[in-house]
Every structure is written in C-alpha cells, then in structure tokens.
Specification:
The chain is of the alpha/beta class. It has helices spanning 2-5, 44-47, 70-73, 86-98, 113-125, 142-148, 164-170, 175-190, 213-226, 253-266, 302-308; strands at residues 32-39, 52-57, 82-83, 104-107, 132-136, 154-158, 201-207, 232-236, 271-273, 298-300. The chain has a single domain (33-308), classed as Aldolase class I (TIM Barrel, Alpha-Beta Barrel), CATH 3.20.20.
Amino acid sequence: MDEYKCCRLCPNDCRIDRRNATGVCRQGSDTRIAWAGLHRGEEPPVSGEKGSGMIFFTGCPLHCQFCQNRQISGSDGENYGITVSDSDMASIMLSLESIGAHSLNLVTGTHFIPSIINSLEIARKEGFSLPVVWNSSGFESIHGLELIDPYIDLYLLDCKTLSHSTAKAFCRTPRYADAIIPVMDWIKKRHPYTDIPHLKGTLLRHLVFPGELESTYDFLRYFAKHYKDSFFLSLMTQFVPPLGNVDFPKLTEDEYDSLVYLMEDLGIDDGFMQDQSDDDILWIPDFRKDVPFPEPFSDPDPVFLSIKHR
C-alpha cells in the first residue's frame, strides 16, 4: 500500500519504505496481531455485558518505559504475534461480532492503519456492523487520524501527560507532550460532542504516574478548561510496573482524595475513576498464553486461535 512506501502514520515520521524495513514501531508492512478476543476489563460502556471485541496489534510507535503490553509493543525487544492478511483480520472482526462483542476495540493500530481500513471494508461488505473503538496511546499524527477517522465511532485515547519531564521519564520521549495536545484539539474539532452510551465521541484516559501528582493536577486543570464539555474522562490510579524489580510508591489515600476534590472543584463529573485496589497486578497480560488476561476478564476468539495454530 502507498502509505507504507514512505511511512508517516505516526509522529515519528520515519518516511521509510516499510515494505523493506521496519520503523520506530519495529514493524514492517505485514500486519501482526498479538491477540483477539472478548475482554471485559474496559470501561463499562465499551465492554457491555459480554465484553469488547479486542484486537491487540504487535508493535507500537511509542515505547514507554513501563508499558504493560511490553511483550507485544516492542518496548523490551520482544515481538509476540502472528502475521495476518487483511481478509484474515476481517474474518476476526466478523467472528468477534458473531460471539457477542459489544464493540470492536482496535488496540495500538496506528502503524497498521492502511491494513485496518482495508479489513474493515472487507468485513462491512460481509455485514459487519459493530461500533469501532480506536484504543490508542494518543501518540498520533494528524495524517494518520485523517485516514482512520471515517471508520471510528469512539476514540478511547490516552493523555498520559502534558509534561515534557514526565513524558521523558515514563514515555521515553518528551515529544509525547508536544504531540498530544494537537491530537486532542483535532479530535475535539471533528467530534465536539460525545455520547458514550452509544459509543460516539471521545473517552480520554489519564493514568496517574507515581511521584508525578503535580503533572496530573496540571492535566486535570487543562482538561477542565479545554475538553470537559466534549470528552468523557477516565482517571486511572492503578499504575503497576510490569518489571518485578521496580519499586514505586503507591498512591496514598490522601493523594487519591486530593484528585477527587480537584475534579469536583473543576466540575469534571462525566466519566470514570478507578478505585484503589490491591488486585491491580492481575491486569498485567501475558501474551505468551492463548488467553493473556485473567479468566474472568477475557475469552479467546476461536477464529484467531485457529489462525494462530494453523
């Protein structure tokens, strides 16, 4: 596809021919999928009763220092996943709908946008009708968004930080802070209103990084000023480093309460906030398994498994 010949699908703007080489995403032009299946761990409107139909793509334009999906993102050099054709991916989409998925949830698909578009076109000709969720780190190029936007119903977007120093520490690049505001502004302009129960618009996620509470305060103030009337907010407080030898202090009860009080003061009342829990380690997936998430939260897609083991 032409977009792979001189790739500028993400802010890294590699402009290399990914048919013959790999970009910062560490992927070529052949689509690789790490897992597909029903997952009930997303925000309630996205998961529904049976779960969201997830497709996790291998590779990532952003290599965060403590990525929970590091086995497939390329953050630690691993490359779990299988190569699929566009028709294979369309079959997976159709299978997820047939087993009762509430939505199609495309996780970190930026570097495969042309293939995803083609697969969606194939699936829709076969009757595919689920709302499509773009589940992203927020590290996007406007060029890539312009390509995929006509196919997306709900943006499930991260805003990890607006701070260059926090971005450097946790996202491995301060450039994240430069990329995210133009992305949010572009999406707000294109989708100024949101209707989460019907999976339309934007649901913005923000994870509180340990030791970076001031960064979160700054984000909340900026969100309240610019986006609270357009985006739902999902504030997550359960940072879990996937590396066992990394010891971060947990968010204290007083710190958690300070976030609640600030959101109330800022009038941020549309969205979700995670409760503090000791069970958050369960959310770290292991993509070496056929079902990488804990059994209560996910089911395998048999079509994907048949492709994986053929």
